[in-house]
């Protein structure tokens, strides 16, 4: 396989991202890009399958895993954001850049997300385009992915139920999975992407596709995930510092009452 083999998917993603950007300008809401994140990977998986023109049991399993994960995430975010105002992060960008915001959002939000989506999906694209055969490691990948899907979906459900009760406004969510980790949904996403990689991994020249789950782990821990959300929660949720002191920041662990977990 050569670099040119991945250009059709890059072009397809670019086209969808451009259309999505145009829609965001029409409705004045950049938040729709978040809903497309999971669905974008579903598109890439099925597009790669169409480009390959053939499949194996392993690659079709991978396509279905991506579809289940991406569709769930897209539906969840779509329902959560329906009828709400634009996310405060994008609203702040809109106010800051004024008339230049359309171009700024195209470059720094939509184009960046499209490039990340294309690169992070490399293990999926390689596996599908090469139609790699079955290997015992697939079972391990499916198990890791299943654990991730459980933590991500159950964590999101528990948080949504907690927020639906007006009496919980401004309070710490420390129930269910949130009792063992401050971010069960991010931990779940971490497992999902390592599960994808293990299901798609193949020995040989494409070993570098491990950069995909490594990059996702970095983003979850240091960029758009835990660090960004923690800074926000500490400033607006009463008792969050104490919750953070005794609750694991990422990996699910029993609570500590004597020392900080972070």
UniProtKB/TrEMBL annotation:
Top-level lineage group: Bacteria
Segments traversing the membrane: 6-23, 35-53, 59-78, 99-120, 132-151
Short name of one Pfam family: DUF1295
Keyword vocabulary terms for this entry: Membrane, Transmembrane, Transmembrane helix
GO CC list: membrane
UniProt xrefs under InterPro entries: UstE-like (IPR010721)
PANTHER family in the cross-refs: 3-OXO-5-ALPHA-STEROID 4-DEHYDROGENASE, STEROID 5-ALPHA REDUCTASE C-TERMINAL DOMAIN-CONTAINING PROTEIN
UniProt name for this protein: 3-oxo-5-alpha-steroid 4-dehydrogenase
Species this protein is from: Novipirellula herctigrandis
């Amino acid at each position: 396989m050569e670099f040119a083999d991945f250009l059709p998917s890059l072009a397809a993603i670019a086209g969808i991202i451009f259309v999505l950007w145009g829609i965001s300008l029409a409705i004045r809401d950049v938040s729709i890009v978040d809903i497309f994140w999971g669905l974008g990977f579903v598109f890439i998986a099925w597009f790669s399958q169409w480009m390959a023109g053939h499949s194996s049991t392993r690659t079709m399993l991978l396509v279905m895993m991506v579809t289940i994960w991406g569709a769930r995430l897209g539906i969840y975010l779509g329902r959560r954001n329906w009828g709400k105002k634009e996310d405060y992060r994008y609203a702040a960008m809109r106010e800051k850049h004024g008339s230049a915001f359309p171009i700024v959002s195209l470059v720094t939000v939509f184009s960046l997300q499209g490039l990340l989506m294309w690169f992070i999906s490399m293990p999926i694209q390689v596996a599908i385009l090469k139609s790699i055969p079955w290997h015992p490691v697939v079972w391990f990948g499916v198990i890791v992915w299943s654990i991730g899907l459980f933590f991500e979906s159950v964590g999101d459900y528990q948080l949504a139920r907690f927020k639906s009760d007006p009496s919980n406004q401004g309070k710490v969510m420390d129930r269910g999975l949130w009792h063992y980790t401050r971010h069960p949904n991010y931990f779940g996403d971490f497992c999902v992407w390592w599960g994808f990689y293990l299901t798609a991994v193949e020995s040989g020249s494409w070993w570098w596709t491990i950069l995909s789950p490594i990059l996702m782990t970095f983003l979850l821990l240091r960029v758009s995930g835990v660090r960004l959300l923690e800074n926000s929660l500490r400033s607006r949720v009463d008792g969050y510092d104490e919750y953070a002191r005794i609750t694991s920041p990422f990996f699910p662990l029993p609570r500590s009452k004597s020392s900080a977990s972070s």
